[in-house]
Structure formats: structure tokens, C-alpha cells
Amino acid sequence: MYVAVLMSQRQPFASRELAERVAAQWDADHPDELAAVAQLRDEGLHRVADGKTTRVEKWSVEKWEQLGPGGWKAVWTSMPDRRLVYRALAAYDPDGTIRREFQSSGPAWEFQTDLYTTRDAEWRVEQRPNGSIEAWVRGCLEEAVGEAYLQARQEALRVSGEKR
Predict the structure, then answer these.
(1) d(Cα 92, Cα 144) in Å, to the nearest integer?
(2) pLDDT tens, position by position, 101-132
(3) Among 102, 103, 89, which residue's Cα sits nearest to residue 133?
(4) Distance CA 68, CA 155 (A)
(5) pTM for this entry
(6) Under a CB-based contact definition with an 8 Å cutoff, are residues 93 and 65 in contact?
């Protein structure tokens, strides 16, 4: 089996071809990370750069069973789906004051379960242990994500109002 090392994560594949295709696309999707690795090399930090370089490694099934999450069931036998996903976050202090706001878009792979979705838009509101409230949105249709972002923010403000 072959493991694509994608920055800090490892994804197992049944064939070298699949692993190399994903690794190549990952690099194409992350030019800033490639530039950071090149900078590390320029600074003489080759060992650190090597640890951050996208690559494909041949692993035994036994090694994956010991070190990789999900065992053999996690091994990709076909190309994982990849989509452009729009994301947004609004974080509020317990009194309803906005603390942080973030919006972006970028490619997300099926194995990136915290980023990937096939839905037009989905949202959730979470209260953190420190009392802050976060409105999270992600989706594949920019307009739908914008509408969901408004709903999520309204819900977060409603929740913060209940806490006061």
C-alpha cells in the first residue's frame, strides 16, 4: 500500500498512482505551503522541510494497521472526491460582541472531514467552555453559504442573549 503524506496528515491508498495523483493535486492546491517549505530549505532547515514535504511512501499493511487510523477500511481504492468549499466563522464573546470573523474558500478532499461537504450549505452554532459562541458555516454554493451565514450569526446572537 502507499501513503500520501500531505503536510501533517497521512492518507492510505491501494495504488501508487492514486497516491501520487492526490499528492500532486494537494501541492497544486497549496502553493503557500510549497513556498514555506522552499523558504525552510533556503534557511538551511532541510530536516524540518523534509518533514513538511508532500510525498508518497510505500508502507506494509502491518505498519498501517499499527500506525494509521482506521486500519484497512481507511485505504482508498478510488480517487477521493474534491470540491471547492466556502467557509465562514463568526465568534462572539458571551455578551454578544463579535470577537473574530473569518471567511474563505478552497478545495476540500473527502478525507478532510472537518472541511469537506457535498451540501449547498450547512451551519452549526457551538458554545465553547470559555463562554464564547461560534457560528460555523460551510458549503459548495457561495450564495447558499452566505444565506446560511446570516442564519447562523442570528442564532449565535440569540444564544448569547439567552446567556446574559
Answers:
(1) 22
(2) 999 999 999 999 999 999 999 999 999 998 89
(3) 89
(4) 38
(5) 0.84
(6) no
